[in-house]
Specification:
The chain has 384 residues and is mostly helical. It has two domains: 1-53; 155-381, MetI-like fold. The chain is 70% helix and 1% strand. It has 14 helices and two strands; from the N terminus they run H-H-H-H-E-E-H-H-H-H-H-H-H-H-H-H. The protein has helices spanning 2-58, 67-76, 115-131, 135-138, 155-185, 189-203, 207-226, 234-259, 262-270, 275-286, 288-304, 307-312, 330-337, 346-381, and strands spanning 143-144, 151-152. The chain starts with a helix and ends with a helix.
């Protein structure tokens, strides 16, 4: 009887182990499939962006389309169904038959544009159309994609993105780091339990809400305070981006400071240092790799933000060194113009080219954070 009981218990245990092993294998397979799907999805998105920007990256610089070829292509591809529909072809409405309120208003009929000016402008437009999208055009200082002679100079976008990102990090990084220091080393336990969730809730705020807040209140307040010529400018946009950057810097810095061994803090206090000296001169340098990673990720967040930059920075492509002038960023340009661009046009391709630049910058920042900060700086600062 005892042998039967023992054998039945062994069989039950074996069955449970088999069932547990089967469940673990299923969970492992599911995790593997989900992880692989995420990697493939990211690769497909990158492939799509590169494919749409490929006409600009590969052939446009060396073989730009001419105005004559573009005209011929347009003429040959015209569809008869796209012609305007005439509802009553027997009625012809001319200037004599039209009511006076529908006639075009002539302000000064005695003044006419000289033919020399018309011919000069036509020659300039034809010359720019023949040049196409050259490297000099892309590196120019004028962003005017919708015109008879479009200009795709990205330098105003580069300067605008750099100014708003600089202001955001200059304001958001110190505030996030100091808030993390206070939460870890100085705040009471109850207050610490309130600060961290509140900051993390701020990270979940929709960016359009932050942009709307800056658009309505921050811009007007700063214009009255500093006397800016423009209500929406790079400084207002940078403050809005700083609001989005602070939660990222705070969360990562707080985790890095909490990971530092408490023995360092206790040894510093035992040597006679104050709480502030111990936190600032001992614990913060020990957590510097994580703090630096937080700042880099904050830069990536500010660099790629769309709605805040679109709503709060003035959205004007200007080349200026002043933070009081309106700016336009890469992501704001893509968000504002992608919905109205003609598919397959040069404007369409260059917007995806801006997306490629955004990806390169974001990937570089994340690679530096992963490789340089976590490995090299950690070994150097921690005596490895």
């Amino acid at each position: 009887m005892e042998q039967r009981t023992t054998s039945s218990i062994a069989e039950q245990n074996a069955f449970r182990r088999t069932r547990n092993n089967l469940g673990e294998r299923i969970i492992e397979r599911m995790i593997t499939v989900i992880g692989s799907f995420a990697v493939v999805l990211i690769f497909l998105i990158l492939l799509f962006v590169l494919r749409e920007a490929l006409p600009l990256l590969m052939g446009t610089f060396s073989h730009p389309p001419t105005s004559q070829s573009a005209t011929n292509a347009t003429t040959n591809s015209t569809d008869l169904s796209l012609k305007p529909e005439i509802y009553n072809p027997d009625v012809i409405l001319n200037e004599q038959q039209a009511p006076e309120e529908f006639l075009p208003e002539v302000y000064n009929p005695d003044v006419s544009v000289p033919t020399t000016i018309k011919s000069d402008n036509a020659g300039k437009v034809a010359k720019q159309e023949e040049e196409g999208i050259t490297l000099a055009n892309i590196l120019g200082t004028i962003w005017q994609p919708v015109s008879t002679a479009p200009k795709f100079g990205i330098m105003p976008l580069v300067i605008g993105t750099a100014k708003t990102t600089f202001v955001a990090i200059l304001i958001g990084a110190p505030l996030g780091i100091l808030a993390a220091l206070y939460a870890v080393f100085f705040a009471p336990n109850r207050l610490r339990e309130v600060i961290k969730p509140m900051v993390e809730i701020l990270a979940g705020f929709p960016s359009v809400v932050i942009g709307f807040f800056c658009l309505l209140y921050v811009g007007s307040a700063l214009q009255r305070l500093f006397g800016f010529d423009f209500r929406l400018n790079a400084f207002v946009g940078g403050i809005g981006l700083a609001i989005a950057v602070i939660p990222i810097v705070f969360t990562i810095t707080e985790d890095a400071l909490s990971a530092v061994p408490k023995s360092l803090l206790e040894a510093s206090l035992a040597m006679g240092a104050t709480q502030w000296e111990s936190a600032y001169k001992v614990m913060l340098p020990a957590a510097f790799p994580g703090v630096f990673a937080a700042v880099l990720l904050g830069i990536g967040r500010a660099f790629g933000e769309t709605m805040i930059a679109l709503m709060a920075s003035g959205n004007a492509a200007m080349v200026s060194a002043s933070i009081g002038d309106p700016v336009r960023t890469f992501s704001a340009t893509i968000g504002a113009e992608m919905g109205e661009v003609i598919w397959g046009s040069a404007h369409y391709s260059i917007l995806f080219f801006l997306g490629v630049l955004l990806f390169i910058v974001s990937f570089t920042l994340n690679a530096i954070t992963e490789l340089f900060v976590k490995e090299r700086l950690a070994k150097k600062l921690q005596g490895g």
